[in-house]
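Budget justification note: compute hours in this period were largely spent on complex prediction jobs such as the one shown. Inputs:
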Amino acid sequence: MNKFIAILAMVTVAATASVKAAPGSALVEEQYKAALSHVTQEVAQAKDPQEKRQILGHFINGMKDGLQKAEGLESISEADRASLHAVTGKFFAYDAELNGLAGYDRVADADLNAFAGYVQQSMEQAPISGGGVYISGGALIVVLLLLIFLL
Amino acid sequence: MRVGPVDPARPGKPAPLASLSLLALLSLLAVACAPSAPRSTVPPSDASYSEYGNKPQTRARGAAAPASAKADPQSIRYQLIYVVHGDAGYAYYDKAGVRRYADTEAVAQAVEVAANSPSAEVFIFHQKPTPFLWFFRGSDGTMRHYRKGRLLRTEGYDRATREDDLGAEAALYRKYSLAPVPVACPPEAAPGGPIRFFIYFGHEIPVTGGIPYSRSRPDMAFSVASFARGLERFGGPACPHAKPFSLIVLSACHGGTPAATAAIAPYASYLLASPGELHLSYLDTRAFARLARENPLPYETVHAEAWGRAIAVESFARLQERTSTAITLSLYDTEKSAAYLEARRSLWKTADGQERKRVDTPSSQAAETYRDCAENPSFGSGGEEAGVTVYFHAPRFGLDKSRVFRSGWECPVLASQRMGDNAWLERPFFNP
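Corresponding output:
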């Protein structure tokens, strides 16, 4: 599962760059969106709320960690760092809401399936079109290499 | 099992390395030197069509148009121009986990409108490259031209290489349209010719042109300014008494920023756009066909507002069914909206004409790139007094889930302030 999350974090980074990094980016982005959908379906199929919450928490924390490591790379530009930061911030907010922290109402057990769908749809519409979240192709390669070796 | 080429001089043995290298080199040369491939005439065969009523009727290129489609210009009441960008990531998954393609679905709904509009001429431009023989680059896009509900032609075309101002699409439109495009403003409002509508589906159109927009042409610029020039190529100059388009529908994220609406306002009486993010479920424009059948001439400006409202209401309902993120649609009466924005010009535009970005405030609780313009009291409420009708549905989750009001505009947030030194991560909000 850890590997899956790491890969998903990696492809999130790649998907934010999909427009710039033309070769192969379509495939990477497809995998990213398929993985998001997979998490949503997994949550929906889980039997009890505790299991659903565990799947979501594990996914969100994995994404946070992977994206923050990528964000900390010295070699990426400030613009790329800002793009990654915007995506990371969304996952911090999802984590806070899932657990009822920092002023958020805790997601009710009955709403966990819907919350998973909300996260999925937010990511589907945000990485590319959400206010110019882009990363350059050169930085992408460095980020991917780091994620592969560190996560 | 043996794979790869076999040296004919030595049957049964793999080709030597030199031969393989030569073959690879020749393949590369073939790709590099290949001329522009023949144009595709293949309409999309995606499952998305099953959602919509009518499949496209295909015609061989060069075949004569049906007699009923050879109409005189007076018999065409309406013209609809669809431009659907498909040269980027447009896949998404529905609630059942089924993969969908937003651009293909947008083309499918345009085809349904075209096939069910007997009094209209419809142009559908799908900006998506088509491969040729799986290997070579084909055309950059495909045009479908309908008249009186019948498909007249499907034609591939190449787009610009440096900056996309819809020049290739407009050239095809000018070539085949029954109605000529005005070259100058009439002395006064002089109704004549078909009523024009322009519909765009795509990702957020960047305000500046430095952001790559099309995957196959990352160096080709596309911006709000080039989009506005494209509108002029299609509809003619922005005349105060006779705007080229009755209604423009912009199905993209952040189409309702002050900069975008101000740039588009001169070209349309009404604009329907989303100030915030818009899920790839997109707007639903199928009402065009029904409205074109139900509304008799003479067409008045009031109809544009009614048509815009109908499309907004139906799109809003469909998005509510499909999505749990925030939905904001704004219908702008462009005359009023432009005046409202002009009076507040310094709030969204710098002295040298650049888009002004708001400085983030410590109260912001997420890494947002856009905020409601009305959060700045100087901007005002940006609602009806600005000629804007807002359709807003709060997200099911997130800090805005209890929100009941949004203005008709969203303003960009200054990135350097927002992202500086991981400031938001260090706020108490994220470290309770």
